[in-house]
Amino acid sequence: MAKQCLFCPQPANSAEDVWSSWILEDLESNEPMRITRGKIKSEWIDNSRVRVKAVCKKCNNGWMSDIEGENKPHMFAMMNDKRTVLEPVAQKLLTRWAILKAMVIDGSSPVKRTPFYSECERTNMRPPLRALPIGTLVWLGRIPVRSLHVGLGDTFGEISNVPKAFHNCITTIVVGHLVIQVLTMHVLPMFATTRIKPICKPGAWDVNLLDIWPAFGNKTWPPAFSLILKGPPWEHHVGGLITRWSIGEDITK
Ligand SMILES: [Zn+2]
Predict the structure, then answer these.
(1) What's the pTM value of the predicted model, to 2 decimals?
(2) What separation in Å is there between the alpha carbon of 37 and the centre of ligand 1?
(3) Residues 103 and 83 sit within 8 Å (Cβ to Cβ)
(4) What DSSP character marks residue 83?
(5) CA 180 to centroid of ligand 1, rounded, Å
(6) Are 181 and 165 in contact (CB under 8 A)?
(7) Cα–Cα dist 21/23, whole Å
(8) Who wins on pLDDT, 44 or 117?
(9) Strands (E), 120-236
(10) CA 42 to chain centroid
(11) How far is the CA of 96 from the centre of ligand 1 (A)?
(12) Quick one: the chain helix, strand, coil %, rounded to 5?
């Protein structure tokens, strides 16, 4: 039986490029792409045209393609290292793009891993609702070397001595000079009304990153400092960004 589309009840009959052709054409990437999923080892894929069969043609060519189009102007500028002022509307559009990528990677994992995003969270992304999953935070950074990377991982933590009270899914995406990190937190229903602020490892996040979701005022990319591929100084290392949520502790106030 054909797999169901991640976003609707149709069969997943469309092979969706993880990277849209406009991104690949711009990067002219023949470089190996580093793709990491969950806790499996990183693998190097020589072909940057990585396709996953997880969505239907109608979704892929319809609203998903619209999200690509809506984000092209500001993403194209940042991928090519051009200073960009992002108004709250653009921040929301970019958040939708990044969450969509996170959901496709999350839902097409080749390893035995239950997808993090629920069917409800995924289908709510479609118009007319266009709802973003609650408990989501998004940051932007800059990397000096043009790259192409996507990585996804899970972390769990306890609240008031209840183990695995929250589950975070963290997706880090690098396209050109633009770095995007998405964190969505799921909490057990008993903590649904508790205000929980995710806590990460200490770092120079306030100068390395711009918070774009929830959106609040205009943001100018790039942030004050760029992330670096090789340390030191370690506080600006991109590896630190990817693993910064790998802690779990009681974070209730
Ligand atoms: Zn569909």
Answers:
(1) 0.89
(2) 23
(3) no
(4) -
(5) 25
(6) no
(7) 5
(8) 117
(9) 136-159, 162-187, 210-213, 219-221
(10) 17
(11) 16
(12) 25, 30, 40
238 CA to middle of ligand 1, Å?
A: 34
pLDDT band at 6 (very low <50, low <70, confident <90, very high): very high
Ligand 1 center from residue 35 Cα (angstroms): 24
Element at 163 (helix H, strand E): strand 162-187
164 C-alpha to ligand 1 centroid (Å): 32
Mean pLDDT on 27-45? 50
Indicate the residue type of 195.
R
Parse the chain into domains and list their residue ranges. Answer: 14-242
Cα 57 to ligand 1 centre (Å): 7
pLDDT category, 81, cuts 50, 70, 90? very high
Say how many Å lie between the CA of residue 108 and the centre of ligand 1. 14
And the tokens for 134? 């609650």
Count CB-CB contacts under 10 A for residue 79: 20
Report the separation in Å between the CA atom of 245 and the middle of ligand 1, taken as the mean of its atom positions.
31
Cα(85) to ligand 1 centroid in Å equals: 33
Find the Cα–Cα–Cα–Cα dihedral 175, 179, 184, 185, rounded to 10°.
150
Tokens 């999923």 belong to residue: 37
- Six-digit token string for 63: 């609203």
Give the pLDDT of residue 100: 96
**d(C-alpha 192, C-alpha 197), whole Å:** 13
